[in-house]
Amino acid sequence: MKQVDHGTLRRRIGKSADQVFANDIEPVLVARAAASGQIELTADGAVSVRTGAFTGRSPKDKFIVRDALTSDTVWWENSAAMSPEHFDRLLADVEAAMAGGQLLRQDLLAGADPAQQYKITVLTPSAWHALFIRNLLISPGDSAFQSETPREVTIVHAPHFKADPKRHGTRGDTVIALDLSRNIIVIAGTLYAGEIKKSVFSLFSFHAPREGVLPMHCSANIGADGRTALFFGLSGTGKTTLSNDPARPLIGDDEHGWGENGIFNLEGGCYAKTAYLSPQAEPEIFAATKHFGTVLENVVLDAAKRPQFDDVSLTENARAAYSLDVLPAIAKGGVGGTPDTVVFLTADAFGVLPPIARLTPDQAVYHFLSGYTAKLAGTERGVTEPQATFSSCFGAPFMPLHPTVYGRMLEDKLRQSGAAAWLINTGWTGGGYGVGKRIDIASTRRLLAAVLDGDLKDASTRIDDYFGFAVPLEVPGVDPLLLTPRESWADAAAYDQQAKHLADLFRKNFEKFGTGADAALGPQFVRAAE
Hints:
Blueprint: H1 6-16, E1 19-22, H2 26-36, E2 40-41, E3 47-49, E4 62-65, E5 80-82, H3 84-98, E6 102-110, E7 118-124, H4 127-136, E8 151-158, H5 165-168, E9 175-179, E10 184-188, H6 194-207, E11 214-216, E12 218-222, E13 228-232, H7 239-243, E14 250-252, E15 256-259, E16 262-265, E17 269-273, H8 283-288, E18 295-297, E19 319-323, E20 335-336, E21 339-346, E22 356-359, H9 361-370, E23 372-376, E24 386-390, H10 403-417, E25 420-425, E26 428-429, E27 437-438, H11 441-452, E28 461-463, E29 470-472, H12 485-488, H13 492-510, H14 517-521
Binding site for substrate: 57, 192, 198, 319
InterPro entries: PEP_carboxykinase_ATP (IPR001272), PEP_carboxykinase_C (IPR013035), PEP_carboxykinase_N (IPR008210), PEPCK_ATP_CS (IPR015994)
GO molecular function, one term: ATP binding
């Protein structure tokens, strides 16, 4: 493998470009993007873009270079391998393709803790992608503390370059390739900007555990008492909505590290889903979509250039990328203390999980490794049954190591910190999807407030027959019937059947971790269904 000095690589690509624009600020990037004809400006001054064929990530096109560092450490069952020779050829060909054109360079930071900080240089021909990543990462000079010796990372972004499977070892035209030994990332063949953001987190998630830092795909905020809370959850579970609270300054929306000094944000912005966005339910996010320089991906605009968030004809994965600075309450420096509370969010469309349950450390690790939610097959005609989704560590595509590495780290940190772990279900009650109803956001907020305020610390509980966790018998302001899902179903036998079914899905999913995983990580989260 060729050794590449980051400074030399960046100068070489810059020298071959016709024009280089380094570290343009937001108004300049908006102007350049507008001049390119690739964007529309909304009535409020946000940048509206379309990402073409890719309206989401392409996980099957993501590769990690297999070399001496990664060969025995990466969980290859979850990651595709690329040879060093293919990567070098891909990098050289992308460099050649970018020659003679416009190049935008952004020198940014990832990691609010200077001890765990990376200098991220993004090279791209696209002004709106440069604006996107400037919104999402930390700009030098922001409130975050800066390291004098950050680790160097270079991202070469060529959205219009088409990879050649035979020449580059890819699956098709699109490729996201990470060389974790040299911290070089190549992204090509896709306009979807989320690939840039998530490639940074993937790189961090590989390196961080070696330094005793747990990488986490979660939100985090701080209460008036200074206590930190974490929010894990897959898309659609309410992670962004529930962590955005003007009374609790936001540390970050999506990516964090838990080190010896506490929690730190990896980013400087938010990448929020906008499908069905409501000014009543999510006022902070709604307001951010109106901010000048916010990037709206695949959001439909009306004739007056106003976003129509209820129109998901382009994709339900429409998103807004904006800086944390536009929010009313953010944590100074993007850091917080050791967590006091860890919340796992799920949207159970089977309608059997209670809206709240307290987890033991063993159960918390089991749920962390399971990463469960249920998605609806709404895009498939005739399919009305919920579909269980399991994503290890609530972010399997971005966690290059075996999930049990992260699971053991979480277990150690929970036991050392004494943090309380809770499961909150934002899904269905009184029956599954199509029969029951979605748990209302007001009830969920009351449940969360009771957790964060410590009101449930000594609450009386029952042990769930199927899942073994402790469910509070009473929560102020919440209908007691909601706390016992079986009693809310018209047919108790149907509830039992669905509960057994879901418990079985948990067990089958956990089998992929191997027969020794249970003994290594504590008792099973799910009880054996009789």
